[in-house]
């Protein structure tokens, strides 16, 4: 009776040990930096993997991404034609009775839309989107945007009008694609937001953080391979954090296993 119990418990230990090995193999695989790089957000407009779009994407706002892009030329074409209207049913001329969006402001929103749709470097900031059911399974959170980009964007838009201080929520979708979808009153951006930081962080519901660290921030329009480097650094940080967690869990499991086998 006692022997059978010991045998059984040895077998359990063996199974546990194999389980740990298997689990670690899976975990180690999921924690390399490469797993966070060259990825596209899972949503209706994004491609599955980044790739070349080439000449078709020339002469558009999104051209900087033409050789490695998460958007198709068609998305690019839509952005140039009507901003976020074809893509998301959101109008940028939200207050046509007062003033339509100025061109200098619109340039920034177009660049932002290209950045979001086309950049293959947002992988480390992709998270599951638990709220949107229809258009996307994933979103980005806390992408560090260079201070200079936020400042220029806010400054060029501060005299322009909007009717919503968080473009991710509040819209009346039964009036989609028209100013009637507005949830709040028409006010200048500078009246909704007191600073470029607030503007950058709040308007897109936490997708961006205003970064004062010039060495480690993303440019809305890529400058050299800066965005690639920032993305790689973040991917390595994420991978090493995951590896550290995995190591400590592995350590605890291994010591308890050894303890079990010895005593
Ligand atoms: C894309 O690649 C082509 C051919 O190699 C090159 O001429 C072009 O400048 C590249 N575009 C960008 C935006 O890097
Ligand atoms: C491009 O987008 C338009 C409007 O969203 C759509 O009607 C059209 O089918 C798309 N074309 C391609 C080639 O995907
Ligand atoms: C804004 O654009 C709409 C549509 O093109 C136009 O009807 C409206 O008059 C414009 N508003 C102003 C203030 O110019």
TrEMBL record:
Signal peptide (UniProt feature, chain positions): 1-33
UniProt keywords, alphabetically: Disulfide bond, Signal
Domain Folate receptor-like: 40-219
One GO cellular component, as annotated: external side of plasma membrane
Protein name, entry field: Folate receptor-like domain-containing protein
InterPro entries documented for this protein: Folate_rcpt, Folate_rcpt-like
Family stated for the protein in its record: Belongs to the folate receptor family.
Keyword Cell inner membrane: no
Taxonomic path: Eukaryota, Metazoa, Cnidaria, Hydrozoa, Hydroidolina
Cross-referenced PANTHER family: FOLATE RECEPTOR, FOLATE RECEPTOR 1-RELATED
Domain of life: Eukaryota
Molecular function GO labels: signaling receptor activity
Source species of the chain: Clytia hemisphaerica
């Amino acid at each position: 009776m006692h022997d059978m119990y010991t045998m059984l418990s040895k077998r359990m230990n063996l199974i546990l040990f194999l389980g740990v090995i298997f689990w670690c193999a899976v975990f180690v695989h999921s924690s390399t930096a490469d797993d966070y790089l060259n990825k596209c957000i899972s949503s209706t407009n994004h491609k599955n993997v980044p790739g070349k779009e080439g000449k078709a994407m020339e002469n558009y706002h999104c051209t900087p991404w033409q050789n490695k892009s998460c958007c198709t030329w068609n998305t690019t074409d839509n952005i140039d034609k009507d901003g976020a209207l074809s893509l998301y049913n959101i109008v940028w001329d939200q207050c046509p009775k007062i003033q339509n969006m100025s061109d200098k402001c619109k340039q920034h929103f177009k660049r932002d839309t290209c950045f979001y749709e086309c950049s293959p470097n947002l992988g480390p900031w992709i998270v599951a989107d638990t709220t949107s059911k229809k258009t996307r399974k994933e979103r980005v959170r806390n992408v560090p945007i260079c201070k200079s980009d936020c400042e220029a964007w806010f400054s060029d838009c501060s005299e322009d009008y909007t009717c919503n201080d968080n473009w991710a929520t509040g819209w009346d979708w039964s009036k989609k694609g028209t100013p009637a979808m507005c949830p709040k009153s028409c006010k200048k951006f500078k009246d909704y937001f007191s600073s470029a930081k607030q503007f950058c962080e709040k308007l897109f519901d936490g997708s961006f953080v205003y970064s004062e660290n010039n060495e480690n921030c993303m440019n809305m329009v890529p400058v050299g391979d800066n965005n690639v480097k920032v993305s790689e650094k973040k991917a390595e940080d994420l991978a090493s954090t995951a590896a550290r967690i995995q190591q400590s869990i592995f350590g605890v499991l291994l010591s308890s296993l050894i303890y079990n086998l010895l005593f």
